[in-house]
Design goal:
The structure is a single chain. By secondary structure, this protein is an all-alpha fold. The protein has one domain (about 30-430): Up-down Bundle (Growth Hormone, Chain: A). It is about 70% helix and about 0% strand. It is built from 18 helices and no strands. It has helices at about 35-50, 55-65, 70-100, 100-115, 125-140, 145-155, 160-190, 190-205, 205-210, 240-250, 255-270, 270-285, 290-315, 320-340, 345-360, 365-375, 380-405, 410-430. Pfam families: MFS_1. GO terms for molecular function: transmembrane transporter activity. It is found in: Cell membrane. It is a multi-pass membrane protein. Keywords: Membrane, Transmembrane, Transmembrane helix.
Length: about 450
C-alpha cells in the first residue's frame, strides 16, 4: 500500500543535544529514500550472490578436468562458506567504522578478483585460495549482516518485511544466475561461467557508489517510521567491538540456541542442497541443466517464502515460527532420496516448491530474536549467528563430498540432515522471551 512507503512527516530534533554539523530533517519525498537504499541493497546482494550459483555446477567439471576428488572440491567450498560466515560480524563493525559503501565496493572487488583468477588455476590449492579465501572474504562482507545494518539504520517500521525482501535477494540471484551458468557450463565450459560471475560483481559497483548512502542523516532524513537522529561518529576499533559483542552474547543462553539452530539451517541449505543437489541428481541420471533449473525454481519460491516469513515475523512469535520451519524442512529431507530420478516428476516438483518456501524463511525470525535479546548490538550478534550458519554449511559441504566418495551415494547425508533439522526445531522452542527491542542502530 502507498501508506507503507510514504513518510508524511519528518521530525527534526535539532536541539542542544545535536552533534555539530548535523543536518536537520526535512520533509521527505513522497517515496521515502529508505526504499531506494533497500532497492540498491537488493541489487547488490544479487550481484554478489552470483558466485553461490557456481559450486554445485562445477563439482563434476572440475573433477573430470583435474581429477580432484569431490572431497578436495568440497573443502574449497567449505572454506568459502566458513569465511563467508566468520567475516560477517567484522564486516558489520567495519561498516560502522568506514561506511557501508566502502566496505561493499571492496567486497565486490574481491569476489570479482577470485572468480577471474580461478580461470587460470591448475592446482587444488589455487581453488582453495581463489574460491575459498578471496571469494569467501568478499561474499562474507556482503552477508546478511549487510542487510541487517541497512535495515537497522534506515527502517524502524516494516523491519520484518524489509529483512525478508533483502534476504530474498540471494535467492533472486540464484534464480537469475543458476540457469545461465548451467547453460554456459554445459555449452562452453566452466571458465566462461566464472568470468560471468566476476562481471556480475563488477556491474553493481557503480550502483553502490552512486546511490547507496550510509545513514539517513546523510540526506537529512529520519529512518522510515522513526525520528531523525544525527549521524554518529565513526565507531573505532571495529574488530575489538565485534569480539567484545561476541563475548557478551556468548554469556547468554539464547545466543547458543540461535547459533546452533542456524548452523543446522546452513548445513541443510547452502552446505547440502546448494552444493550437492545437482551432483546427486546427476548421479540418478538427471541432466545437469535440469537439476540446475530445479534449484532456480527453489530460488523463485524462496523469494515468496522469505517475504512471507518477514510479514509473519511482524505478527507472530518468532521462536514458534522457527520451530515450524525447521520441523517441516527435516520431514521433507527424509523423503528426498526416494524422489531422485532421471526425470522431473510431480513429487519432485512438490519438494522443490516446498523447500523453496522454507529455504531462508528462518532469517527474519532469527534476526527478530537477535533484536529482541541484544538490542543495538543485534546486527553484530546476528553476524556471529550467521557465522555459525556458514560453519554448519561448510562442514556439510565438505562431509557431503567425502560421503559421496566413500559410500558412492548421498543418501546418508540427506537422512542425517533431516534428523538435525528436528533438533533445530526443539532448540528454537526453548529460546526464552527477550526484553530488548533494538534501538535504531548507529
Amino acid at each position: 500500500m502507498l501508506a507503507d512507503v510514504t513518510q508524511t512527516t519528518e521530525t527534526s530534533v535539532r536541539g542542544d543535544g545535536a552533534r555539530p554539523g548535523s543536518r536537520p530533517a526535512r520533509r521527505g519525498p513522497r517515496i521515502h529514500r529508505a526504499w531506494l537504499v533497500a532497492a540498491v541493497t537488493f541489487v547488490t546482494i544479487i550481484g554478489g550472490a552470483a558466485f553461490a550459483s557456481l559450486p554445485g555446477l562445477l563439482i563434476d567439471p572440475l573433477h573430470d578436468e583435474f581429477a580432484w576428488s569431490r572431497g578436495e572440491i568440497g573443502l574449497a567450498v567449505s572454506i568459502n562458506m566458513a569465511l563467508y560466515g566468520l567475516t560477517a560480524p567484522f564486516a558489520a563493525a567495519l561498516m560502522d567504522r568506514f561506511g557501508i559503501r566502502r566496505v561493499v565496493v571492496s567486497a565486490l572487488s574481491l569476489v570479482a578478483a577470485g572468480a577471474l583468477l580461478s580461470v587460470w588455476m591448475t592446482a587444488s590449492w589455487q581453488l582453495m585460495l581463489y574460491w575459498g579465501l578471496l571469494v569467501g572474504l568478499g561474499t562474507g562482507s556482503m552477508a546478511l549482516a549487510f542487510s541487517a545494518t541497512v535495515t537497522n539504520r534506515w527502517f524502524v517500521a516494516r523491519r520484518g518485511l524489509v529483512t525478508g525482501i533483502l534476504t530474498a535477494a540471494g535467492a533472486s540471484g540464484q534464480l537469475v544466475f543458476l540457469p545461465l551458468c548451467a547453460w554456459i557450463v554445459d555449452e562452453h565450459g566452466w571458465r566462461p561461467a566464472s568470468v560471468t560471475v566476476a562481471l556480475a560483481a563488477l556491474a553493481v559497483v557503480p550502483f553502490v557508489w552512486l546511490l547507496l548512502r550510509d545513514h539517513p542523516a546523510d540526506v537529512g532524513l529520519a529512518p522510515y517510521g522513526g525520528e531523525f537522529t544525527p549521524r554518529p561518529e565513526p565507531a573505532r576499533g571495529a574488530a575489538a567491538r565485534a569480539v567484545r559483542v561476541l563475548l557478551d552474547a556468548a554469556r547468554t543462553g539464547p545466543f547458543w540456541l540461535l547459533a546452533g539452530s542456524f548452523a543446522i539451517c546452513g548445513a541443510s541449505t547452502n552446505g547440502l542442497i546448494r552444493t550437492h543437489f545437482v551432483p546427486s541428481a546427476h548421479d540418478h541420471g538427471m541432466p545437469v541443466t535440469a537439476a540446475a533449473s530445479l534449484l532456480a525454481v527453489i530460488g523463485v519460491f524462496d523469494v515468496v517464502g522469505t517475504i512471507a516469513s518477514g510479514w509473519l515475523t511482524d505478527r507472530f512469535e518468532a521462536r514458534r515460527l522457527l520451530a515450524v520451519y525447521y520441523a517441516l524442512r527435516g520431514v521433507s529431507l527424509l523423503f528426498l532420496p526416494m524422489l531422485l530420478a532421471p526425470g522431473v516428476h510431480v513429487p519432485m516438483i512438490f519438494f522443490i516448491v516446498f523447500y523453496g518456501l522454507d529455504w531462508v524463511a528462518t532469517v527474519p525470525p532469527t534476526l527478530a530474536l537477535c533484536r529482541e535479546h541484544y538490542g543495538a548490538d543485534s546486527a553484530i550478534v546476528f553476524g556471529w549467528v550467521l557465522a555459525s550458519h556458514q560453519v554448519g554449511a561448510a562442514v556439510v559441504a565438505f562431509l557431503g563430498g567425502v560421503a559421496r566418495d566413500v559410500f558412492g551415494s548421498y543418501d546418508v547425508v540427506w537422512y542425517a540432515s533431516g534428523g538435525l533439522c528436528a533438533a533445530a526445531a526443539l532448540m528454537a522452542l526453548v529460546i526464552r522471551r527477550g526484553g530488548r527491542e533494538a534501538e535504531p542502530a548507529a
